[in-house]
């Protein structure tokens, strides 16, 4: 696509342009914002823009031989939160906003890009050099979204040590023009990154300095790049000490000109492309997972009562139209939406919302609007709106309807900076010939809502261009994180991976999910603490894909197993004191996935703050008194198995416990009454001797499905055969979360349910 590159003069924006070119994009314009004359200096305090060295940027048009568009920064930092939404003024002002609001500096970028687009309407993308700055990335993405542009951020979430070495190896001549960190001095100004690489590495080891300067430790100016037709030259330089800070210095450069690079043609990409490293699709960990599957195929072969490859072909291998695996229900059947409210957690579940039966022949956009009308009415009855929604699970009768559905869906959630996480799958057996079925989870405590919504293309993980986030969490009371589904897309191109082996698809999609989980940080999280999973679900479209998933998960656990490390050094929050979560994994076969993908991984997590809070509660207890009373204390600050595949009365159980909460998942191969489900919950927790009072009213007892074949395969549950009679694709699949508090702390434990699918 045609691209405008945001340039500050620094190494990041210049290096990202190289990757844009290598990915087949054409940079046709440059854009830059600079301090107004009233500042009187190269350096301007800005949360958003690098301004030091801005006087050199006007020469970049000569260096690259493409037009440059510049405007002064007229706004200030108004919206200081990580998430960004422009403050509306005038006729657009919100009713609560009774006075005109000052302009945020982000809107200067919006106005600049609008100017660029008037001259270059062919531009479809924006190059930005964000590495770790969520603040910067979110604002650029907001502007791009409003202008219909794709954000290209190929440096996002890169390992800084690797990235720094790649910048140096590429031939990019980047020199320090500002220092603002312990260990760096004014003597370092003007030196190249190559010259300073040993010093930066030493300071990183000694004091944690960010190697690429992501903590503001230094800023650079690029004098040459493989994309430059002419190199930049500064005629004079003057060291300036920042008046407001200690040990902060910058170079005030002037008298810039450019010089020829005889015989050099940057358009001859073959002459320099080998110097620019492109990250491998699978990093070292997941490459090893794939190798484990290949080399230890016998070990990771699904084991248990039934192997996928030996299932009755009549049940699993026919095309869906001829196979009773995908049951076609009575078209007159109707499911009533179900609303479950947990006031203690402030969580609301609304399940199985469909349009009226008579709408089955309506266009899908009309059907979707009707479904949302019903959801909004059900939310309003609880005093909520769509902005309170954390997670949506969408069932489409035909994935061919996705584009039309998504347009309408986006009209309801597109304005949110962190829209709900979403899973969208195809189920050809929806009741009364429904085309859309929707389940949502909402929180009453909207102010505690947090999310990760990366819309930029990168090498990191697939962008969520659509109106959904990669991960969202609600109140701190439960610490639950809802993860969007991840399919095996190549992140840089957003195309489905072209590989014949389903194992490669499975490993890549799991890498995407784990990268999201690692990058996700709730607002209050301690940096460096990744969330851990409470339950995973993998959707597949064939037995072969299910077989691949069943191999992938144990291989991943084997590769990443590292018990016994010091707790403070542990990044994976599911590890504490050498214990790791025994995470329930469900594999679900259905008729279709987005983009025709064979596999989609999704799941639920618990953020590190919740685990640390549980640990703190536990440490407050008097263990000696507990032991003196003869009670066996339950260490609440690490995951450990609670029960694994225990079976009672046709029910399969999976569960794991962390802190004062226990996650329990179960499926039923029989239809149960409400009373039987209540008894099941009681039995479920009695199995492990948990005799605390149980608030049954706090747990949804919900729905069941008939005629489901459940096969236990290598620690997973794989769903095949016989579709449900009430329109969903699974039978009684839930991740339940029940809080078990010691009676000395409270007299009434409470429970709640996290839906995987809905009814």
TrEMBL record:
Residues 1-76, 103-241 form the Diphthamide synthase domain. GO terms for molecular function: ATP binding; diphthine-ammonia ligase activity. Pathway: Protein modification; peptidyl-diphthamide biosynthesis. Gene3D superfamilies: HUPs, putative n-type atp pyrophosphatase, domain 2, RutC-like. One of its GO terms (biological process) is protein histidyl modification to diphthamide. Keywords: ATP-binding, Ligase, Nucleotide-binding. Pfam families: Diphthami_syn_2, Ribonuc_L-PSP. Coiled coil: none annotated. It catalyses: diphthine-[translation elongation factor 2] + NH4(+) + ATP = diphthamide-[translation elongation factor 2] + AMP + diphosphate + H(+). InterPro entries: Diphthami_syn_dom, DPH6/MJ0570, Rossmann-like_a/b/a_fold, RutC-like_sf, YjgF/YER057c/UK114. Its EC number is 6.3.1.14. This is Diphthine--ammonia ligase. It comes from Magnusiomyces paraingens. The lineage of its organism: Eukaryota, Fungi, Dikarya, Ascomycota, Saccharomycotina.
